Amino acid sequence: MEFFRQTNIDFLKYRWWAIGASWALILVGLFTIFVQKGLKFGIDFSGGTAITLRFAERPDIDRLRAFLDSAQLGEVGIQRYEEAEKNEVLIRVQQQRQEGRDVSHDVQNALRAGLLGPAEDASKLDLNREGRDTLAARLVAADPDHISGRPDVTPADYYGRIAERIIAHRSETGIFRSAAEFDRLPETSGPVREWLKANS
């Protein structure tokens, strides 16, 4: 099949037009960079924090964005994550100027305050956002299984494994909706479950 019969085209005849158009595009790009005072890199290139959160119900992205705007975290990107029925969102927060700022904690606090109102008691556990190390430290301090002083057990290791199982269970089944769900925690003693109920 023949598309072109006459292939003797003088491309070089239009070289100055092509060079001129290229320079015009380069100058427009440089002018735009100058007006914007530099390149505006997205979070993917400038660094930052990515957080995945799961909700009990389908989240309203616009409401979440409004709550996070009030937290003064800078540029924040929110998008649905995984399948819609999983009720998960991916939140990207730009790199913070303040060193050592716990962005994940600030994001969760802003969303919690917006969705649920301010927390009543800061000493209470929220197992839906507690990390392994913090939960393990709280368990070590409370020692509900009374293992302190036993030569065959290290409290940090013992309660660290329990904390890992709790976090793994949460990741597998979703958020804890009530204290009654603590009874279904795998390989967890009765005193630990009762302590979780009393302190959550």
Description of the structure:
The protein is mainly alpha-helical. The chain folds into two domains: 43-116, 2-Layer Sandwich (Alpha-Beta Plaits); 132-198, no CATH class. The termini are far apart. The protein has a three-stranded antiparallel sheet with strand order 1-3-2. α5 (132-142) crosses α6. Helices cover 44% and strands 10% of the residues. It is elongated, with a radius of gyration of 27 Å. The chain contains seven helices and three strands. The protein has helices at residues 15-35, 43-46, 61-69, 103-116, 132-142, 155-173, 190-198; strands at 48-54, 76-81, 88-94.
Produce a short descriptive summary.
The chain is mainly α and 200 residues long. The protein is built from seven helices and three strands; from the N terminus they run ααβαββαααα.
